[in-house]
Amino acid sequence: MLLYNAHLAKLQGHEVLSINQDKRLWFIELITWWEGRISASHLIRQFGISRTQAQKDILYYQQLLPGNLLYNASHKGFLPQTEFQQGYISGDVVEYLNWVSHQDAIADISTALPYTTLALPKRQVNAEIIRVLVTAIRQQRRVEVDYVSVSNPDRQGRIIVPHHFVSAGLRWHLRAFCEKSNGFRDFVLSRFRGVPDLLNKTNIGAGQDPGWITELCLAFQPDPRLTPAQQEVLAHDYQMQNGKLHIHSRACLAQYVLQEMQVNIRDIDISPEAQQLVLVNHSDIKPWLFDEKS
Fold it and tell me: Is 94 helix (H, G, I), strand (E, B) or coil?
């Protein structure tokens, strides 16, 4: 809450915010910033409060951070203004996507025990891009985008139909049908450029994505080159059953599971202490790995 305390100091005479109202004010800002519109209905559905209370919360947010929201009758809600200042959210896309994917980002993190987090690099993602992609997913529409990659650093225009955001460890992806490739692909969110253009509706969706609708089970076991005692440590770590760890995944996400588990299926010379786990059913997973399709 970057500006929260400063604005509270200006509002003398107001009661200290309750935890629940604080969550609702955070929610107002989160939805407004990333989705481009907030209404009383959003708060009613999310928190189960009355319309009167929801309207009071929005009004109170306007008092705390004047200039952020303005009611627009044609949109039947409050829209973010050009002078919008973030008082509750971090502005990091992961914060929004965590809420979208888990619906629990508003839960308080306990401060009863000391803790720290890794200082990992953030991927720069433009809010304007996310807003358009969110709309495209919800309305099942085609989107014209500019996209770059390490192999093709120059902007490439393409038309996609997004259907899911995907968390892949350190970065977020967009799963979408690509008309240029004539197939479903993963797009790294931080590699979109400019502002996408919303196009017409389409019948293409996740149900037609073979990699999305196909379920796999990745089976892991301790590297057999380890001693029995070392293997037992890993079996206990991962709560293995009969010496195996089974992870269920959508087929198109199998590669990311391997990366997160730090299982290298190509370098057979890697030390067992570094490898620790091995993939048992490689032949079942192979057709879905990025560069092993045959």
Answer: helix
Q: Are 170 and 122 in contact (CB under 8 A)?
A: no
Only one residue has tokens 């008309």, namely 179
CB proximity list for 20: less than 8 A, separation 6 or greater: 47
Q: What is the pLDDT of residues 100-135, one digit of tens each?
A: 766 544 444 333 445 566 677 777 788 889 999 999
**Using CA atoms, how far apart are residues 189 and 89, in angstroms rounded to an integer?**
19
Q: How many residues does the chain have?
A: 294
- Phi, psi at residue 209, to the nearest 5°? -95, 105
3-state SS assignment for residue 74:
helix
Whole-number Cα distances in Å, 205 to 117, 191, 223? 37, 22, 39
Domains of the chain (ranges, CATH numbers): 4-102 (1.10.10.10), 127-208 (2.30.30), 214-288 (no CATH)
pTM for this predicted structure:
0.74
Q: Cα-flanking dihedrals φ and ψ of residue 185, to 5°? A: -140, 165
Query: Residue 98 is encoded by which pair of tokens?
Result: 């965590």
Give the tens place of pLDDT for each residue, 138-189.
999 999 999 998 888 888 899 999 999 998 877 889 999 999 999 999 999 9
Helices 40-47 and 51-64 pack at an angle, to 10 degrees, of 120
Residue type, 183: G
| 3-state secondary structure at position 118 | coil
Cβ pair 79, 69 in contact under 8 A: yes
First to last CA, the chain: 51
Please list the residues that pair with 158 across neighbouring strands.
145
Token duo for residue 119: 């200082």
Q: What residues pair up with 160 in beta bridges, in sequence order?
A: 143, 178
